[in-house]
Design brief:
heterodimer; A: alpha/beta; Rossmann fold; 2 domains; 4-stranded parallel β-sheet; 8 strands; B: about 450 residues; mainly alpha; Fumarate Reductase Iron-sulfur Protein, Chain B, domain 2; about 0% strand; elongated; oxidoreductase (chain A)
Chain lengths: ~260, ~450
């Protein structure tokens, strides 16, 4: 697929409407790359003038900060801010709630102030502006449950954007017992993704997967590449791969629209 | 001799309030051991939080059953205190039910009737609370940190309330002239038969005894607050006022780090520059927190405010899956250590003498800190907006930046970020490969 970079744009003297911040998972993780491509297809269908940083993008520093390494976080932040400000970026969209939270909330006091959107908010706006329509027939009748990413939900009080999009897919949205502000974490946040869990009697992602399975879903929808990994692993552990799929909302929309 | 009861009462009142004031000063002193933090912005939102969350109990009722029961005790506590005002005036002036002289008999009866009904309700609810704590097998009351004193403390508070409510009703039941009036006694009238065998003099003696024990009990309870987990009845108000207003996902950026990073990234900085004279006298700021003195005042206020209800712990993903981390224990440990430091200061004439202990390791283990997913469930759950997560993060910062004591896998993750700009070992030049893979 053709994905313009900010450097290309600048060479042509152009400024895109929005920068798509892909994030480390979206760039390197095989599962998350599918989310990235699905979102790009949506952007292309809606004719959004976007660009990515490509090789100039670097870790936001979220994981480093939450692991306690404030030095590394601020070094990453200042490097990224230099690049972003160099390209005069005003508006950013990302599929990763961790990048979303860091760019939106933690960069401003370090000199990087942008209008930052989670992809579910951005797609909502595209629909409101009449630039995108979701086909309600493809996934009609499927049972979908939504797992709230902590850094989207509790972290930034965004509960309705993803649910609004799911409802537009023509599916049945069923809530887990713990949802929205009382949603249970997938177990990946706070840099847990990159280490083994401390001794306990269960993995967090297994507990959350069990809660999701209680709703008897066809699809577990998420809005975060890390949640996606954790829930996908949980489904494998529970040997439910044949019956249940874990999908990002961007993937569901791309699927609905046959992109 | 006629004024002896008045004098005794005045002495008891002075002692009770005096001790309480002394202890409150100690709490202030201990909270002020913390680092400064500015939480005076956006006062409109702060007042709103206080009214909604502390006064209005909006977060309590998210768990409808225990929340509703708590509202009964809360309303009872606040309203019955109007009666305490009358008792105090009576005690000082040697009068009996002095409010009757100022308000109509029917309104007085209405007030006392309200107090009696609330007292009975409070008694019932407190008994339910006791049952929940001791018999109902509710997981959050059975955690390891609730063994011993914390469990007893919780029960003592409930016993206090049961006894105080009973004394109030007995005092009314044995007040013969009040019962003869026949109004304002919707509950106490049913207790009257219990005292049927007593003479008028005997009844008066019981009434006086109940009256005295009731007010003395209140003064003792007031002073027990300082030693108990029950300070939330006062501190919930400042605690909700000063709580964080930023999005919960936003963690603070350490200013001390910003200065150093800016210097490192400044191409004009002279690496061989001699430090400014005077600058080397400054002790470089410690990164993160290993003891209570490294925490900020709001974090310490949080610790005093915590009433150990355990809603945080019951929502914590790490705790739910059997890990050692319990956000409630983080708050309890912080308070225990702060009080230990406070006692140390008292014993050493106003200055802290190194005691070879700290919050980290002696109270909170790295294993607890590393189990946190930073999901904010504990912060969301707290009925009075306590933030255990900020303490966990500050202590992780100390472990990583001062001790280089992160788990090995996290060190690898951080090395990868430094080298490749990603938490995994991929080449930064491959960042756009995803675009060509389909």
């Amino acid at each position: 697929m053709i994905v313009p970079t900010m450097a290309d744009m600048m060479a042509q003297g152009k400024q895109p409407e929005v920068l798509f911040w892909v994030g480390a998972a979206g760039s390197y993780d095989d599962r998350a790359k599918k989310i990235t491509r699905a979102f790009v297809k949506i952007l292309q269908q809606a004719k959004v003038d976007f660009a990515v940083l490509g090789v100039e993008e670097s870790s936001t520093g979220d994981a480093a900060k939450r692991a306690g390494n404030e030095f590394l976080f601020q070094m990453q932040a200042m490097m990224n801010i230099e690049v972003l400000n160099g390209y005069e970026v005003k508006k950013i969209v990302t599929c990763d709630p961790h990048s979303f939270n860091t760019l939106k909330n933690e960069y401003p006091s370090l000199g990087g102030t942008y209008e930052v959107y989670h992809h579910t908010q951005f797609i909502q706006n595209l629909i409101a502006e009449g630039r995108l329509k979701i086909d309600q027939t493809t996934l009609q009748g499927k049972r979908v449950t939504f797992h709230d990413p902590c850094y989207l939900g509790r972290g930034n009080d965004i509960y309705e954007s993803p649910r609004d999009l799911i409802k537009r897919l023509g599916v049945n949205l069923t809530e887990m017992k713990r949802n929205k502000r009382s949603a249970l974490c997938c177990g990946a946040g706070g840099a847990q993704m990159f280490k083994d869990a401390e001794a306990g009697d269960k993995e967090v992602n297994i507990l959350r997967t069990e809660e999701a399975l209680e709703t008897k879903p066809d699809i577990i929808a998420t809005g975060c590449p890390y949640c996606n990994t954790m829930m996908t692993d949980g489904i494998k552990f529970k040997e439910k791969e044949a019956a249940v799929v874990v999908k990002d909302i961007a993937e569901l929309i791309a699927e609905a629209n046959n992109l | 001799m006629q004024y002896l009861p008045n004098i005794l009462f005045a002495i008891a009142l002075t002692l009770g309030l005096g001790f309480f004031a002394m202890n409150i000063r100690k709490i202030f002193r201990n909270i002020n051991l913390g680092k400064k933090i500015d939480r005076t912005d956006n006062t409109a939102a702060r007042w709103k939080n206080m009214f909604k969350i502390a006064l209005g109990q909006s977060k309590m009722v998210r768990r409808p059953f225990s929340g509703f029961l708590h509202v009964i005790v809360y309303v009872g506590f606040v309203i019955i205190n109007i009666e305490v005002l009358e008792i105090v005036i009576d005690g000082l002036l040697g009068t009996h039910r002095i409010f009757q002289n100022f308000i109509s008999a029917s309104f007085y009866a209405f007030l006392i009737a309200t107090f009696e009904i609330l007292a009975a309700l409070v008694f019932v609810v407190v008994t339910l609370f006791w049952t929940r704590r001791n018999l109902a097998n509710i997981k959050r009351f059975l955690s390891p940190e609730m063994k011993g004193w914390p469990k007893m403390d919780g029960n003592i508070i409930l016993y206090f309330e049961m006894v105080l409510m009973t004394l109030f009703l007995v005092m009314n039941a044995t007040d013969t002239s009040f019962q003869e009036g026949g109004i304002g006694n919707p509950i106490s009238q049913f207790l009257v038969p219990l005292f049927g065998s007593f003479s008028v003099g005997g009844l008066h003696a019981i009434e006086r005894t109940a009256w005295w024990f009731h007010i003395l009990g209140i003064l003792v309870f007031l002073n027990y607050l300082f030693y108990s987990k029950h300070l939330h009845i006062l501190l919930a108000f400042p605690n909700t006022f000063f709580a964080n207003l930023n999005p919960k996902g936003q963690f603070n950026n350490l200013a001390s780090v910003t200065n150093e990073v800016k210097l490192m990234m400044d191409p004009d900085a002279d690496p061989y520059a001699a430090p400014d004279t005077g600058a080397d006298e400054e002790i470089p700021e410690k990164f993160g927190a290993s003891d209570v003195l490294d925490l900020n005042k709001i974090q310490l206020l949080n610790a005093y405010t915590c009433t150990e209800c355990g809603r945080c712990t019951s929502a914590c993903p790490a705790n739910l899956t059997g890990k050692k981390l319990s956000p409630r224990k983080i708050m309890m440990d912080t308070r225990d250590r702060m009080e230990e430091v406070g006692r140390n200061i008292d014993a050493n004439g106003g200055t802290f003498k190194e005691d070879g202990k700290q919050l980290l390791n002696d109270y909170i283990l790295p294993e607890e800190l590393w189990a946190c997913t930073s999901c904010n469930a504990c912060v969301e759950e707290c009925p009075v907006n306590i933030d255990p997560l900020s303490i966990i993060m500050d202590m992780r910062r100390y472990l990583v930046m001062e001790e280089s004591a992160a788990p090995q896998e996290l060190n690898m993750m951080m090395t990868n970020i430094e080298n490749n700009g990603a938490p995994w070992q991929y080449n930064q030049q491959d960042r756009l490969n995803w675009a060509n893979e389909e």
